[in-house]
From TrEMBL, chain A:
<dbReference type="InterPro" id="IPR003593">
    <property type="entry name" value="AAA+_ATPase"/>
</dbReference>
<keyword id="KW-0547">Nucleotide-binding</keyword>
<dbReference type="Pfam" id="PF00005">
    <property type="entry name" value="ABC_tran"/>
</dbReference>
<keyword id="KW-0067">ATP-binding</keyword>
<dbReference type="InterPro" id="IPR027417">
    <property type="entry name" value="P-loop_NTPase"/>
</dbReference>
<protein>
    <submittedName>
        <fullName>Nitrate/nitrite transport system ATP-binding protein</fullName>
    </submittedName>
</protein>
<dbReference type="InterPro" id="IPR050166">
    <property type="entry name" value="ABC_transporter_ATP-bind"/>
</dbReference>
<keyword id="KW-1003">Cell membrane</keyword>
<keyword id="KW-0472">Membrane</keyword>
Automatic annotation (TrEMBL), chain B:
<feature type="region of interest" description="Disordered">
    <location>
        <begin position="1"/>
        <end position="37"/>
    </location>
</feature>
<protein>
    <submittedName>
        <fullName>Nitrate/nitrite transport system permease protein</fullName>
    </submittedName>
</protein>
<dbReference type="Pfam" id="PF00528">
    <property type="entry name" value="BPD_transp_1"/>
</dbReference>
<comment type="similarity">
    <text>Belongs to the binding-protein-dependent transport system permease family.</text>
</comment>
<feature type="transmembrane region" description="Helical">
    <location>
        <begin position="83"/>
        <end position="105"/>
    </location>
</feature>
<keyword id="KW-1133">Transmembrane helix</keyword>
<keyword id="KW-0813">Transport</keyword>
<feature type="transmembrane region" description="Helical">
    <location>
        <begin position="170"/>
        <end position="190"/>
    </location>
</feature>
<feature type="transmembrane region" description="Helical">
    <location>
        <begin position="112"/>
        <end position="131"/>
    </location>
</feature>
């Protein structure tokens, strides 16, 4: 890793997202308040791609929903650029696990809908349309922009969802197992596309996945969750590979296999 | 002769340049076989229908002709004559007791559409509200559960007493018949809207108006249309019974009047008309259902 290939150093020292000892739980009649998931303090820097990985049911998606403001935080605080997150915001663009495209609108209208509903910025229809087209172009969907979601394949539907979230140009992208519902081939194809998109857009991304290769390919940093109940972050790992990344080079790197088995072992509890 | 030969030699040159495009079209023989199969199926269904129809008329004829019941049982022949007579005088409008079948039908359709429309105007917004708010729903639910199983006709005397108008009462009864299917279906539809749609709307910081009109309502539309369809068929079922009691004009009133005149063939004709119109009403909403994209 040489100095030239490192991404530009962040000038601000203030983290974009700060998790401070957050927990989520539920009231239990016999045992009182029961924690289901929690984290120690985590600072997420601007431009960083961070992945939360963990066994199913450990609550990693819950953490993401709390950051998104869609779930309340029971203890601790989450802040975005110094401000506590209490409600969903357009500064937090979400890519859901299933495509969440409104079925009565075309792919383009779905992206446009997200742009038009902005209560903060008033932009001309023309400006919004070219923005929507630009982001659909980025995920190579210009040819299918006028199709309804039911006329798109699973991978294409998810690409529209990704384009919509990027088009919001949010401070932070939240990706909740964005490729989890896809078949292996499409999944691999979209991982590469997502890699290219993230390296080009340089947005702060927080992704949840249970796919070790996906995590290593895309992330700068991986948080490994232990098993539930009351799951915690057990490892906070830097991913040292230079960008832009290339799958073939990556797979030949002995370090990649070392990290991969480390992650697999910590996920399966060995 | 000479011109013909030049033409035939030229032809391959012009078409040969364009390559045969790769298509999914099956060979002509296969398509022909599929078409033949469809034609055979159609002939069979039509044939069976004709056989059933003739059989039905035959049994009806045998069962009613020469019956010693004072001519009460409608025979196919008498019914046919009556049908032609009723169609001939369909548009007759000669005093309150001499009204053509068209005006009876029109009166019934008007009442049904009015009562149904009023019910839709109230039930759809109420359903959206009750489907969204668990608390309001749970407070209202006992009313819905108790009132829903009541036959709409039970409201009729109350309507007459309070409204003191037979026309208004009939519309009120139809309203009560149509209200519940729309309300219940809308509530159910709202509850089955993908919760992620609402998460998306929240994450976009949309205002309540956008959330209701651009997300919730379109997503619930298929369920609403299903409710409207059930409501309209129920309303059409109820109107005949209601009109037998409130009188005036209408298919129900006509049927009851013909019974009082012991004119049973007219009743058979009326039954066929009521069935046919009910079918058309249902079809028209089914068309609406097709236009609404499924969510």
């Amino acid at each position: 890793m040489t100095a030239e290939t490192l991404p530009a150093a962040h000038t601000s020292t203030e983290p974009v997202v700060k998790l401070e000892g957050i927990t989520k739980g539920f009231p239990d009649r016999k045992k009182g308040f029961q924690r289901i998931v929690g984290t120690t303090d985590v600072d997420i820097e601007e431009g960083e791609f961070i992945t939360i990985i963990g066994p199913s049911g450990c609550g990693k998606s819950t953490i993401l929903k709390m950051i998104a403001g869609l779930e309340s935080v029971d203890e601790g605080t989450i802040s975005l650029a110094g401000q506590p997150i209490t409600a969903p915001s357009r500064e937090l663009g979400i890519v859901f696990q299933q495509h969440v495209l409104l079925p009565w609108m075309s792919a383009r209208q779905n992206v446009l809908f997200a742009l038009e509903t902005d209560p903060h910025k008033k932009r001309s229809k023309q400006e919004l349309e070219s923005l929507a087209d630009e982001y659909l172009q980025l995920v190579n969907l210009s040819h299918a922009a006028d199709r309804r979601p039911t006329q798109l394949s699973g991978g294409m539907q998810q690409r529209v969802g990704i384009a919509r979230a990027f088009a919001l140009e949010p401070k932070v992208m939240l990706l909740d197992e964005p490729l989890g519902a896809l078949d292996a081939l499409t999944r691999h194809e979209l991982q590469l596309q997502l890699l290219e998109l993230c390296e080009q857009q340089k947005r702060t991304c927080i992704m949840v996945t249970h796919d070790v290769d996906e995590a290593l390919l895309l992330s700068d940093r991986i948080l490994v969750m232990g098993a539930g109940p009351n799951a915690q972050i057990v490892h906070d790992m830097k991913v040292p590979f230079t960008r832009p990344r290339d799958v073939e080079n990556l797979e030949q790197d002995p370090k990649y296999h070392e990290l991969r088995s480390f992650l697999l072992n910590s996920l399966t509890g060995h | 002769m000479s011109t013909q030969t030049t033409e035939t030699t030229e032809a391959p040159d012009t078409t040969g340049a364009a390559q045969q495009p790769h298509t999914n079209t099956a060979p002509e023989a296969l398509q022909q076989r599929a078409r033949a199969q469809r034609t055979r199926d159609r002939i069979q269904t039509t044939g069976l229908f004709v056989i059933f129809f003739l059989g039905f008329i035959g049994i009806w004829h045998l069962a009613t002709v020469g019956l010693d019941d004072g001519g009460l049982a409608p025979t196919p022949g008498a019914t046919w004559d009556r049908l032609l007579e009723m169609l001939g005088t369909a548009f007759l409008l000669d005093g309150p007791n001499n009204v053509g079948i068209f005006y009876h039908l029109l009166a019934s359709i008007q009442r049904v559409l009015l009562g149904f429309g009023l019910a839709a105007i109230i039930a759809v917004p109420l359903g959206l509200l009750l489907g969204t708010s668990r608390v309001i729903h749970d407070g209202m639910d006992p009313f819905i559960q108790i009132l829903r199983p009541v036959s709409p006709l039970a409201w009729l005397p109350l309507g007459l007493a309070l409204l003191r108008d037979s026309q208004m009462t009939a519309i009120f009864v139809i309203f009560m018949a149509a209200l519940w299917p729309i309300l219940v279906s809308t509530i159910d539809g709202v509850r089955r809207v993908n919760p992620l749609f609402l998460d998306l709307a929240k994450s976009l910081e949309t205002d309540t108006r956008t959330r209701v009109f651009k997300v919730l309502l379109p997503a619930t539309l298929p369920a609403i249309v299903t409710g409207l369809r059930t409501a309209l068929s129920t309303a059409w079922l109820v109107i005949v019974a209601a009109e037998m009691i409130v009188g005036g004009r209408g298919m129900g009133h006509f049927v009851w009047n013909e019974w009082n005149a012991l004119n049973t063939p007219s009743i058979v004709v009326a039954i066929v008309i009521i069935g046919g119109v009910g079918f058309l009403l249902d079809r028209s909403i089914a068309q609406l259902q097709r236009l609404v994209p499924k969510s």
